[in-house]
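Please review the protein record below. Let me know how this chain folds according to its tokens.
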Amino acid sequence: MKLSTSLVVLACGSSTVSAFRLVDNWSGNGFFDQFNFDTFNDPTHGYVDYVDRNTAQQQGLISTSGSTVFLRPDSKNIASGRGRRSVRLTSKKAFQQGSLIIADIQHMPVGCGTWPAYWTVGPNWPNNGEIDILEGVNTQTKNAYTLHTKAGCNMAGVARDQWAQVVTQNCDVNAPGQFANQGCSSTDGNTQTYGKDFNNGGGGMYATLWDASGIKIWFWWPSIVPADVKNNNPNPASWGRPSAVFPFGSHCPASFFQSQQIVINLTFCGDWAGDGNVFNGQFQCPGSCVDFVRNNPGAFADAYWAFRSIKTYVP
């Protein structure tokens, strides 16, 4: 892949001044202590059985190796009941405006039937906003960056200097002319941002800055991570054009985003991945999504998350 000059400079240069200080560094054995294990029925109607921490540990669905943590579904048994066993984590801590969250991800779930997501959400959804940082379905090859809000947040006509291509502009989950809960979404043009190419390239880092001006998301594969990020001295002003930008203003008030908690999950099928036009049509996956997920446990051996760390910073 040909690297742009801006990316090369980004990888090699760094500023000696940082406006941010490290607050949280979640990795290794203490990682799971920072999260609640959700066991409720999947709000997106997925064919999934979210299990508690004890069950996840006993069945090998969560583990650590050094500082890296793993979250995986059951890939040994035919599924039954609510669906294939998996894990959904929600951070105990809620983050406020001004936060910078950087996730170092080594591997992500991939394959027909999968719907992985790394995201943040406020209370009383959608009234306090949702930020989808890394999300997609089935054999998708490029990441989707999306906001979900109540009525009153619309990016139409707003200047946005970003790499990703705009798909939809109204962030309202009930926006007319968009699919239900589609939100305002942009798709990255780089296949290293999602799926097999992401995993084959050793993963990467997603940095999310939520401040008074809006929400910005950057992605770097390992060889272009800025030196200031590696040194825990992040300076977003030096990072150049973000992958995705969602500015605040009269078109989208900053007050629409409050008290964001980090969520990491893997569901199956459901409203997006399991839609026939998506599962069979767009991605050419075989048969019924639920039947495929139920009866092919070995298909999900590679459908796991591996996080090296999640670090959070404040000004």
Observations:
- The two ends are 35 Å apart (CA to CA).
